[in-house]
Design brief:
178 residues, disordered N terminus
């Protein structure tokens, strides 16, 4: 957890925050604004921001707010899910990997909500995509993940969670980019 927080803080302090679509960012056309995606049920309102470090990009996607039905103390365990990929020159995944990641995210979307956990932050860049989840029961979360993606065809790993009943990592990053 500290690794992601330190990397993100350094990226945010070292560069101006920028937002755009991944395709435009790969082409170098980056705007200096923050965007919010439309309401998608449990995926309520995300802030999407790019940070540029030297020649690479870091895509930060953070929920705009804690979902109204979420009670953070009931989901005290932070779990990081990692997907390593071969980066392009900007540190971003190839289109084929983006498609695979989209399929994976669609497959695990049913986990979100008040029974298992909340996805609160996604970081992409430097050869890795990391999802930050807050869950009630890590074993139940892993079991549901295995049920939703039988045979585990995706190159993901889980980092056992630390206790964050106040969702410290999410709140700190949300504050920095808002």
């Amino acid at each position: 957890m500290k690794r992601i927080a330190v990397a993100l803080c350094a990226a945010l302090f070292a560069s101006a925050l920028m937002a755009d679509t991944p395709a435009q960012a790969k082409k170098g056309a980056i705007a200096a604004t923050t965007t919010t995606q439309p309401d998608k049920g449990p995926n309520v309102s995300w802030l999407v921001t790019f940070s540029k470090q030297a020649d690479s990009l870091l895509l930060l996607k953070v929920r705009n707010e804690v979902p109204p039905d979420a009670q953070p103390a009931k989901f005290p365990t932070a779990i990081e899910m990692h997907w390593k990929y071969v980066p392009d020159a900007k540190g971003m995944p190839a289109d084929k990997v983006v498609t695979q990641i989209a399929k994976f995210e669609a497959a695990v979307d049913p986990i979100q909500g008040d029974h298992l956990g909340y996805l609160m932050m996604i970081v992409t860049g430097k050869g890795e995509r990391t999802w930050l989840w807050y869950v009630a029961d890590p074993k139940a979360f892993a079991a549901e993940l295995n049920r939703l993606i039988p045979g585990h065809p995706y190159p993901i790993t889980l980092s056992a969670g630390s206790k964050e009943p106040d969702w410290t990592t999410y709140r700190a990053m949300r504050q920095k980019i808002h």
